[in-house]
Write a structure and sequence with these properties.
The complex is a heterodimer. By secondary structure, chain A is mainly α. Chain A has eleven helices and no strands. In chain A, helix 6 runs antiparallel to helix 8 and helix 10 packs antiparallel against helix 11. Chain A starts with a helix and ends in a 44-residue tail after the last helix. A two-stranded antiparallel ribbon of chain B has the order 1-2. Classes of the chains: A mainly alpha, B mainly alpha. At the A-B interface, helix 1, helix 8, helix 10 and helix 11 of A face helix 1, helix 6, helix 8 and helix 9 of B.
Chain lengths: 275, 274
């Protein structure tokens, strides 16, 4: 196949170098996040959002009414238990759970000979390895945000999506099936983060999610292109650099079908929250 | 548009077209939620006007075409020695024309200034892709792979949708739509476009525009106050990132180079629009 292994390694090295720059940006966002959260977790939140989010995060209990809502709010805000129930923390924990599952799924995929073994397409293998590493970094970023807000880090996979992955495992008999599963996870992650970006009450939590959603969308774009080439029996065109002259016309657009990224398949905000 | 049809395609084109059509249908399903978001934004004009923008100007990416870079998309070349003034004509034809600064003429501030900036960047992208398409049509750029042509046409169409969305916010707020482009960026693009001699060069220019737009939207997500504005930027940023990924792939570069999107190269509301 048309693959220059040396060039691919160079590209991955360059990519790692660039990634370090990007990590610095995210660290800055997280540091700002910590300061804000310690000073006033609702500092830049408008009153309506603050009220609505607090109410969403509260347990359904008559105790609050008896104690007086204002007093209860103050008490809950000061407790670690409350931290795990705020909408921002739940969304961050859910995001971490999706990332945890993605890491585990790519890990499993790489044990398959046609993804990570001798018969694998080298570019697909490199993509799976690199993407797994990126998801690991995303999980760490989301969990860092969680813990700095006083919540518990989420080290478990999203329970609902885990079922999807477990159901799919027996059918992972070739690259196409693996790509389909990866697409479902990547698109679900991207849609969830896009939806949540508009919901976070804390600006820096929003920034962390926003800096990751586009990367998942890029994974989707490449997987869509790979899926199309595999479906057309043109696995040999999955190469870096590709022989662009042989790529079918549709390969130029199949990766990005939507002008606006959808959110219809976003996961529920609390689906992967720590229980 | 002239297309290179001499290559044997080792894949079922019909199958791919069918898949693309399915995805196109999916795209149309996303439009209602986008319109809903825009309507929500129009309903909160007071918040928008009161918003504070703090887009931070940052150095351009070291990968940026305008500051050098390589390409390995071989086998194609321009008939001439650069695309010269094709961009200005294409920008005019694509609907983005020279007018006085939209922001200053309308005295836009806060979130609406960011919206105008976004519209002007989208207009510039539309015009640049139009110039590329014209170069192929006029035979100035030859041997262009079909996939590259399809990419350019689809990306341009999506940038038109983005521009329309941003302008919908402006007109919904009682302001004029922005038909001009980001002149600050265009100065650099004009110089780079004049030097383009082959498809890789053009692709690098497009990559720089896409990365700049994505960075601007990421910065905007942190800067704008309006929740609907944040949602709008959030649905567009990933699409620009996808354009960049496919361009990287076509150029033979690793398609997802960063684990976290960056604001490096983000444009600011200080840019001149016209």
């Amino acid at each position: 196949m048309a693959l220059d292994d040396t060039r691919l390694r160079d590209l991955l090295t360059q990519s790692h170098d660039l990634h370090s720059d990007a990590m610095e940006t995210t660290r800055v966002a997280l540091d700002e996040y910590v300061e804000l959260a310690h000073d006033d977790p609702w500092a830049d939140v408008d009153p309506a959002t603050r009220r609505a989010t607090l109410l969403r995060g509260l347990p359904k209990s008559g105790v609050l009414a008896a104690a007086g809502l204002g007093t209860a709010m103050v008490a809950l805000l000061a407790s670690p238990a409350f931290a795990d129930k705020t909408m921002d923390v739940q969304m961050l924990q859910t995001a971490a759970s999706i990332e945890n599952l993605a890491v585990a799924t790519y890990d499993t995929a790489l044990t398959l000979d046609f993804i990570g073994g001798a018969s694998a397409n080298a570019v697909v293998k490199a993509f799976a390895e690199k993407t797994k590493a990126q998801h690991q970094q995303h999980a760490e970023a989301f969990n860092a945000a969680v813990t700095r807000l006083g919540g518990k880090a989420q080290d478990q996979p999203d329970p609902v999506l885990l079922g999807v992955v477990n159901n799919a495992k027996p059918s992972l008999t070739g690259p196409a099936q693996v790509v389909d599963l990866a697409l479902e996870l990547e698109d679900g992650a991207a849609q969830t983060y896009v939806a949540n970006t508009g919901t976070y009450s804390n600006k820096n939590a929003r920034t962390v999610a926003a800096s990751i959603m586009g990367v998942e969308a890029q994974h989707v774009a490449i997987l869509n292109a790979v899926k199309a080439l595999l479906a057309g029996g043109a696995a040999d065109l999955i190469a870096l650099p590709p022989d662009a002259s042989k790529l079918p016309a549709a390969a130029g657009s199949v990766g990005f079908p939507n002008a606006f990224y959808p959110t219809t398949d976003a996961r529920p905000a609390s689906e992967g929250a720590v229980q | 548009m002239r297309r290179n049809r001499k290559q044997q395609i080792a894949i079922s084109e019909a199958e791919l077209v069918s898949m693309t059509n399915d995805l196109e249908d999916a795209h149309h399903e996303t439009l209602p939620s986008m319109r809903e978001s825009l309507a929500e934004w129009s309903d909160s004009n007071d918040d928008i006007r009161a918003g504070i923008t703090r887009l931070v100007s940052t150095p351009s990416s070291r990968r940026a075409f305008l500051f050098g870079g390589g390409a390995v998309l071989g086998g194609v070349a321009l008939a001439g020695s650069g695309l010269g003034g094709g961009l200005a004509a294409a920008v005019t034809r694509s609907g983005a024309r020279s007018v006085s600064s939209a922001t200053s003429a309308q005295k836009l501030t806060g979130d609406l200034a960011v919206v105008a900036l976004a519209a002007s960047l989208e207009n510039l992208a539309v015009g640049t892709y139009q110039a590329a398409i014209d170069a192929v049509t006029q035979g100035k750029l030859t041997g262009v792979p079909d996939a590259v042509v399809t990419f350019a046409m689809t990306a341009q169409s999506q940038h038109k949708d983005h521009a329309a969305a941003w302008n919908g916010v402006l007109t919904g707020a009682g302001k004029k739509a922005v038909s001009g482009v980001d002149l600050t960026v265009k100065q650099s693009v004009d110089k780079a476009f004049a030097q383009v001699k082959d498809v890789p060069g053009l692709a690098m220019l497009a990559l720089d525009l896409e990365n700049g737009a994505a960075a601007t939207y990421l910065a905007a997500i942190s800067a704008v106050k309006s929740p609907a504005g944040i949602k709008t930027a959030a649905t567009i940023h990933p699409v620009e990132m996808q354009h960049a990924a496919v361009l990287n792939f076509l150029l033979g570069q690793y398609p997802v180079p960063d684990s976290f999107a960056k604001t490096t190269g983000a444009r600011t509301v200080k840019d001149k629009i016209g």
